[in-house]
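Changelog-adjacent note: as of this version, every example in the card shows the full chain rather than a window. The one below runs 261 residues end to end.
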Amino acid sequence: MKYIETDDLSEIQGHMLDDAESFAFKCHSGVSCFNLCCRNLDLFLNPYDVIRLKQNLAITSDQFIEEYTDIVVRPGHHFPDVMLQMADNEEKTCPFLSEAGCLVYPDRPQTCRSFPVEHGLYYDAEKDKTSLVHFFRPPKFCQGRHETATWTLTSWEADQEASFYNQMTVKWAKIMQLFQNDPWGGEGPNGQKGKMAFMAAYNIDAFRDFVLHSSFLKRYKVRSQLRMKIKSDDTAILKLGMAWIKMFLFGEQTKDIIPRR
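Full-length structure tokens:
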């Protein structure tokens, strides 16, 4: 999910979908382009994507980041992007692609799960309001768009079991929106604060260890329902991490975490 920086949504490629509008699409092994979209990708991973993928592979978040991602700091951006590292072959395929299809399909990233629909957060400065927008954007080679199966945004989300993915991605997109402003005080995202924030978002196993074995819980009061889960629930520790980033870097208070006096 992207934060859309434009004054005119008509400038964006693809067809903008409203909630009730339908589109045709079906991907299966019988279409001539099967798996072509899984090559040479600039695939950005959200924190919840990393959780699901590292759980699928039965490795730690630190191992996943080291073995499967590239960390990129783009000019003008104030937080690193985590990108899936393509395989070292001629076609630069997704590392999880096999001849039969996706090896991690039940836990595929949100971008793959939503395809061929792309979601974005659009900020209307005049109304000071952020809203979700959706675009139907299959690549030109995609033959799945000529299939007869039709969907609405709601039915496609349900079919792809994407509802919770989308909720978590929206939460992260709103935090990334905050990073339009530089919170680092001159030290940049590679400074100590930046490393702590990155850990809280993406290296949740290390963040859990930090929360449980430092003075964190003495300095911050964590909502009881959340605190009960953070020892074993990866999603719970991610939610704590996102709440902590908002408070630690931007001074935004949340119900999940409060500084102790």
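Structural remarks: The CA atoms of residues 19 and 154 lie 7 Å apart.
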